[in-house]
Design brief:
The chain is α+β, with helices and mostly antiparallel strands. Helices cover 16% and strands 38% of the residues. The protein has a seven-stranded antiparallel beta sheet with strand order 3-2-6-9-10-5-4. A three-stranded antiparallel beta sheet has the order 1-11-12, with no helix packed on it. Strands 7-8 form a two-stranded antiparallel ribbon. A hairpin with a 2-residue loop joins strand 9 and strand 10. It binds flavin mononucleotide. Flavin mononucleotide (FMN) binds next to strand 3, strand 5 and helix 1.
């Protein structure tokens, strides 16, 4: 495959599109779009979020020590993009975007009702990365939309309909179609190798 070098940059995809909700020490609730987000440990369950130190969200998380990562469904692409263009320093983004904060179970930051998957995190560690701060949050609760569960109790990815962000290309896509079962399909190569 012939390739073109892009140099040191941040082009990488797919990335999740999330809305990180937080509350300040003054009780102000805010939400921001974040795609530099991911699970980084199972024991303890940990979510990493990388935030520019000027974000209002970063300040609020430092104040109250918690945050919620809300998965953005594809039909909220416009609202999510808006929350990534405006700062909570200047306006109430929840109000403008029509998003509904509801109390979380274990942390002070709220969940977004419109999101089908909400991850409650307690801030455990912070790593300095130039102008960014990598926040490691211990996952203390996850809420998954009831409508996503099949009768057998498994989860149907289509019900979450996650909005996918292509970093570098600056586009939002939806999930596309299922290609294989994970931790399973690769076994077909076991026989070939032995
Ligand atoms: C798709 C998308 C992804 C983004 N991801 C991040 C991110 O991971 N980290 C970050 O610091 N800013 C990210 N931003 C920018 C922030 O969302 C934006 O600066 C926002 O205004 C910050 O809001 P706040 O000041 O209310 O916290 C992203 C923006 C968009 C549109």
């Amino acid at each position: 495959m012939q390739k073109r070098q892009l140099g040191p940059c941040v082009t990488f995809f797919p990335q999740p599109t999330t809305l990180v909700s937080s509350v300040g020490s003054d009780g102000q609730v805010n939400v921001m779009t974040a795609s530099w987000v991911g699970i980084v440990s199972k024991t303890p369950p940990t979510m990493a979020v990388s935030l520019h130190m000027n974000r209002r969200t970063y300040r609020q998380i430092r104040q109250t020590g918690c945050f919620v990562v809300n998965l953005v469904p594809a039909d909220l692409a416009v609202e999510a993009d808006y929350c990534g263009l405006k700062s909570g320093r200047d306006e109430d983004k929840l109000l403008v975007a029509g998003l509904t904060p509801v109390p979380a179970r274990r942390v002070a930051a709220p969940l977004l009702d419109e999101s089908p998957l909400n991850v409650e995190c307690v801030l455990r560690e912070e790593i300095e990365l130039g102008e960014y701060r990598l926040l490691l949050g211990e996952i203390v609760e996850i809420h998954a939309a009831e409508k996503a569960f099949t009768e057998s109790g498994s989860m149907d990815a289509r019900a979450f309909d996650p909005l996918v962000y292509l970093g570098g290309i600056r586009e939002y896509w939806d999930l596309g179609r299922k290609r294989a079962d994970a931790y399973a399909e690769g076994k077909k190569l076991f026989a070939k190798k032995s």
